[in-house]
Amino acid sequence: MKLSTQNRPCLTALFRSGRRATIYLATVIMMLAIGGTAAYASDQAVTLSFSGTSETSPTNLQQPNSSNDGDSFAGKSTLGSFTARNLRAISSVLGSSNSCSGANLLYYPELSGASVIRFDDGSMITMNLTQGGDCIDLTTGLAHCSVTFQITGGSGRFVNATGTLTMTETVGVVGLDALGNPVFFAAAGKFTGTISTADKVRDDPNKEQK
Fold it and tell me: Model pTM?
């Protein structure tokens, strides 16, 4: 059937209307796909248990009235085996804390610091210290420390990671200097908190338990 000239504008309009509907549908599908990717962003609760040593660090973080501490830890988790290196500036001036008060307890705030957690596959998490402190029990000679780190990024499985991890540890003196000052310590504890990544963080294939 031959189309008349009068019918052609109507058919053209119909074609354009259908094309616009197709474009709109494609746009909606694309937005849903993007939304699905964003929804897959994962907040994963983690626990990383460790043990290791702490000692006076030669690196000076230039915090007034403080000493510098360096930690070297190793541990296991469902994310894999890992090592952790911390650098922390600990105040030499007594502070106060509701969780550390009593005749035989001394509380020293932690002023600044940083941490790198490295897993066996080479993936890393980098963090900055935001708050915390050390509670020293003069009766037992042990220190109980709680420090909060803000995740600043990472590599491998943890590229662009965010979140917060709290490190809790118990520390005991191992060695003293010639003046009787404690300078070398044994420590054990864990990092707990949440890691947020663009995709769910893959567990270690070996599924090592905490």
Answer: 0.77
